[in-house]
Design goal:
elongated; alpha/beta; about 350 residues; about 35% helix; Rossmann fold
């Protein structure tokens, strides 16, 4: 147990929903929040990190080896996100800095986004909405701007975890879609729930009518959806990515759509972010793009705030973390302010 929570300085790198901040203050922690509505520069982040015992970070914060070695005073970093590809985990582990994250908080919100993008792309909704705004909704054309239906199609999930399962449940319930998936490990519980089948990567590409990405970004998945992968997909298929933009090669995706190698795409993530306003994907009829809003609901962001705060509270009160990336750090003997 800690003797005096007021001695534990917690720095939050951006204003977040109040649930987590209130929890930390109620427990007596000394909490400060970056007051500006803009990301911190690397130097500003280091300056604040040096003053803190714990920091609560966002996905946009670059927590690289340089930062971690400058701020090796930190006991832990609690990430306001389900992903943590912005953090150098091996370096943090070497320095004994525990890393927390918020899995499960945004599963429904992100699955809703993927499901919506799938429908929007399949019916060219974003493109047709723009035509109205341009005054191009004129008379009925029986063969113009036709979409495709989703009933009884095959859904391929790349990364059948919490979010992937929720996406599959929506597709199966609404459209009676057959579910196949590709994972590093078999998900027997999901197979039982969904009647899903584990397949190889090439089989996932060739069989999916809709291929939805829900994996983490890492060395294995970075750029995996490239020209070679798209060439193995059906010319009638839809590609949906609500995970990370770095998982697909954007130039190759543009080429595949232009050539008719695949039929359409729905993206909540791009590479880079923010996307350039002149990106050709934005003007394609069969593409729907959103500005990374997967977790952007009051419920999801509130739960993310609460979980990120609980990682900090439980670390100092009980030397544990409800959601920890590198649990070995909890037994490395770094004392922090624990009594």
């Amino acid at each position: 147990m800690i003797k005096d929570p007021q001695k534990v300085k917690v720095f939050i790198t951006r204003e977040i929903p109040g649930a987590g901040i209130e929890l930390l203050k109620k427990e007596g922690f000394n909490v400060s929040v970056w007051p500006h509505d803009k990301p911190m520069s690397p130097d500003e982040l280091i300056e604040e990190g040096k003053k803190a015992n714990a920091i609560l970070t966002l996905l946009t914060d670059v927590i690289d080896a340089s930062f971690l070695n400058e701020c090796r005073n930190l006991d832990l970093i609690s990430q306001f996100a389900v992903g943590y590809d912005n953090i150098n985990i091996p370096e943090a582990t070497k320095l004994g800095i525990a890393i927390g994250y918020t899995p499960g908080a945004m599963s429904d919100a992100t699955a809703d986004t993927a499901f919506g993008l799938m429908i929007a792309a399949s019916r060219k909704m974003f493109y047709l909405h723009k035509k109205i705004m341009k005054g191009e909704w004129t008379f009925f054309r029986p063969k113009a701007d036709l979409g495709v239906e989703l009933k009884n199609k095959t859904l391929g999930i790349f990364g059948l975890g919490r979010i992937g399962v929720q996406m599959a449940l929506r597709c199966k319930g609404a459209y009676n879609m057959k579910v196949i998936y590709h994972n590093r490990k078999q998900n027997k519980d999901a197979e039982k729930l969904l009647g899903a089948s584990l397949v190889g990567f090439d089989e996932l590409l060739s069989q999916s009518d809709v291929l939805s990405v829900h994996c983490a970004l890492n060395n294995e998945t970075r750029g995996i959806f490239d020209q070679k992968a798209f060439s193995k997909m059906k010319p009638t298929s839809l590609f949906v990515n609500t995970a990370r933009g770095g998982i697909h090669n954007e130039r190759d995706l543009i080429d595949a759509l232009k050539a008719g190698t695949i039929w359409g795409a729905g993206l909540d993530v791009t590479n880079p972010e923010p996307m350039d306003a002149n990106n050709p994907l934005l003007s394609m009829p069969n593409v729907a793009i959103l500005p990374h809003i997967g977790s952007q609901t009051e419920e999801a962001r509130g739960e993310m705030s609460r979980l990120a705060a609980m990682n900090i509270i439980e670390f100092y009160k009980n030397n544990r973390m409800p959601n920890v990336v590198n649990p070995e750090t909890l037994t490395m003997g770094k004392p922090g302010l624990n009594a």
